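Pilot study result, target chain (265 residues):
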Amino acid sequence: MSLATPTTPRLSGPSQGNDAATALAITGLRKTYGERTVLDGVNLEDKVGELIALLGANGSGKSTVLKCVVGLADIDGGAVEVAGHRVDGHAGRKHHDAAMVFQQIHLVKRSTVLDNVCSGALGHLPYSRSWIRSAFPKELREEAMACLDRVGLADRAHDRAGSLSGGQQQRVAIARALCQRAPVLLADEPVSALDPAAAEQVMELLRSLADDDHMAVAAVLHQPDLARRWADRAVGLIRGQLSFSCPPSQLTEQMLGELYAPDRG
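Predicted structure:
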């Protein structure tokens, strides 16, 4: 995996072009917690081969959008479709069309890197084989090795996950998501706990997954400069409503100032 950093922002659209199929379609999404409205009619599309950066202040609803997509939060209104399948909107009823990577990486640090990646496919295994690591079938281990190779860490497969650096652990988490075999990858602040060099490597990997693996990728970011360098489109949220959706090259300091104003949570 190349670790070169682009020196200029991406100016083009998704690698699959404007006619690429829509992998994630969000229409009028609403979410409330008690009397507080967190999402208020959000509309968003993510196409095959497209990397979207979700920007906004803390509390603007960015992470909640992703949680609604993968079934970690109830949907109170609107519709979500992933790979052409309607998400039923009830928390706990997860599906296999979207995988998620978190800021808190949640690896089992005493287990091997390979076992952590294999766990991404637990939903595809019979229950009797899903809770015993030694029961991971050979074909799954081979698939997990291919996922590790995809993120540049095949040589660390048999190391304990806790022995890896933060950036390497996040790449293992992405490999685990790939093992889920989902066409949509969601990343909730995947680089916020990483140093700048590791953050660039993770963003380059997400970019490559969109370009080369034709995945639809949506990443919550707090760094507009990363969005400018790596994303096809920047989406801004203010108090649960869409503020803008544009190529990152069109982001202005005024737009960002409004997005991150002190009262924009």
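One observation from the pilot: Strands lie at 22-33, 36-47, 51-55, 77-82, 85-86, 98-101, 184-188, 216-220, 233-238, 241-246. A full batch analysis is planned for the follow-on phase.
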